[in-house]
Design brief:
Layout lengths: L10 E2 L4 E2 L2 H4 L1 H12 L4 E5 L8 E7 L2 E7 L5 E5 L14 E3 L2 E3 L6 E3 L4 E3 L3 H4 L16 E5 L2 E5 L7 H5 L3 H8 L9 E3 L4 E5 L4 H7 L10 H6 L19 E6 L6 E8 L12 H17 L4 E10 L3 E4 L5 E7 L5 E10 L4 H14 L5 H15 L11 E2 L17 E4 L4 H15 L3 H4 L6 H5 L3
Antiparallel strand pairs: 1-2, 2-21, 3-12, 4-5, 4-7, 5-6, 8-9, 9-10, 11-12, 13-20, 14-20, 15-16, 15-22, 16-17, 17-18, 18-19, 19-20
Helix pairs in contact: 2-11
Length: about 450
């Protein structure tokens, strides 16, 4: 597909405006599939979803259906879910355990390691030139198991995953590390929420990448007081002591988040008062984490996005949401819920119920957000509406907050620097033919802190 000319005229970072064409144009959407989703590192799932040999889980990479599976040698694979003969999906179940994947169209059969092992009437229908070893399932050229989370890219020339996330790793670790501070140890609760929303995929991905100003949308949830504390706090575990909140953007990588800074000296805030056993578990985990801390400050991530489309939160709302593109005006949302493997059953069930109230298609905050994204998309595709750009000028030209010992460009909580960095990265992907042009090979943490 030929690149679309003039995209830079639609993304005016100097003046903080973004054309609505970026969110509604069909040609731009198709170019995103080639330039972004065929090259970027994308979240697939978690190893806890395939604990046994032969287990599989169906996921997505952009518009592509993929199979996450564990073979007989305990090796994890990510395959394109399509038969090499006529393209039929070789797996039509969401998850399970199998010894083979068999196409119901013409019967080609694949082992769980992707090898083509069965072709009906192969002796009669094919001559000696047919080499089954060349017709196995298509496997991603690069995959990374990062603390149990599985990421993959279709581009064999993409930088390694740890380089792709760079200094953002310190924030991502809060998702996959334990409540008690131990490294790793997370797992996915059974089941994944999957639903579709009539909006462009960039709306939710950008919102979660740092948009504290949209909290006005959630006023009704504060009134409902449905958090674990039942005191009007939708997040559930806010400290009584004063907090400092910041937006964190990665200028060269496009990732972003907003965080809540805490002091090691802050007291534990009771959260599950009506469930003593659950309260004891979280208090114990909090005390263990405090004892392991080096230094006096720590943070929780309120909302975050790994470019392009994997959003998440840590703390008590530990979830991963992936915004899969399904057309310029349709997004298929997948939400995963994580807990520590050591979480006892009563606490696990309490978190499950809280997650359902909070997130997903029936969650109170998610419903607020979906209404915004739905109506914004519908109101932006008209002939007249497309003549007027979106405004991303909040704190345009802001200087980084000094003396915050964290990587990235640190902004005050009400800022749109993260969104501007995100669209800077979007434009780099869309206009650059190779990784040589878009990957910052030698950018220091100091450079990122100062926004260079």
């Amino acid at each position: 597909m030929a690149a679309i000319d003039g995209l830079s005229s639609l993304v005016d970072l100097e003046n903080g405006t973004i054309s609505r064409e970026v969110f509604v144009n069909e040609e731009i959407y198709r170019q995103e599939q080639e330039q972004i989703f065929a090259r970027a590192w994308l979240f697939i799932g978690h190893e806890s979803q395939i604990p046994n040999r032969g287990d599989f889980f169906i996921s997505r990479m952009g518009e592509e259906s993929v199979i996450l599976t564990r073979d007989r040698r305990n090796k994890i694979h990510v395959f394109l879910n399509t038969c090499r003969h006529r393209g039929m999906k070789v797996c039509r179940y969401d998850a399970g355990n199998t010894q083979t994947f068999s196409c119901p169209y013409h019967g080609w059969t694949y082992d769980i390691d992707g090898r083509l092992v069965g072709v009906p009437n192969v002796q009669e229908a094919y001559d000696d030139r047919f080499d089954r070893s060349q017709w196995g399932l298509i496997e991603v050229p690069q995959m990374e198991n990062y603390k149990g989370s599985i990421w993959a890219t279709w581009d064999k020339g993409a930088p390694p995953f740890l380089d792709y996330i760079g200094d953002y790793k310190v924030y991502l670790d809060t998702l996959f590390d334990g409540y008690d501070g131990r490294e790793g140890g997370a797992e996915v609760l059974d089941g994944v929420h999957i639903w579709r929303m009539p909006c462009n995929w960039k709306f939710p991905a950008t919102t979660f990448g740092g948009d504290a100003a949209h909290a006005i949308s959630h006023r009704s949830t504060l009134v409902a007081a449905y958090g674990p504390q039942g005191e009007g706090d939708r997040h559930g575990a806010r400290q009584d002591a004063p907090q400092t909140r910041y937006e964190i953007g990665m200028p060269d990588l496009g990732h972003g988040c907003h965080i809540h800074m805490h002091s090691k000296d802050e007291p534990y805030t009771p959260t599950w008062q009506t469930m003593p056993n659950v309260e004891d578990y979280f208090r114990s985990a909090w005390e263990s984490r405090q004892a392991k801390m080096i230094g006096n400050l720590y943070f929780e991530v309120g909302a975050a996005t790994v470019f392009p489309n994997a959003s998440w939160a840590s703390g008590i709302r530990r979830t991963m949401a992936v915004w899969h593109p399904h057309g310029p005006q349709m997004t298929e949302a997948w939400r995963f819920y994580l807990v520590d493997k050591t979480t006892p059953p009563e606490a696990r069930d309490a978190l499950r119920r809280y997650h359902m109230r909070y997130s997903g298609p029936a969650g109170m905050t998610e419903q607020d957000d979906m209404e915004n994204w739905n109506y914004a998309s519908a109101a932006s595709k008209g002939t007249i509406a497309r003549r007027y750009p979106y405004n991303y000028q909040m704190r345009l030209g802001v200087e980084p907050v000094p003396d915050v010992p964290l990587p990235g460009f640190v902004s005050p909580i009400l800022a749109e620097q993260n969104q501007r960095y995100r669209f800077k990265r979007w434009l780099e992907f869309m206009e650059s033919p190779s990784w040589d042009e878009i990957y910052p090979k030698a950018v220091t943490a100091v450079g990122r802190q100062n926004g260079r």
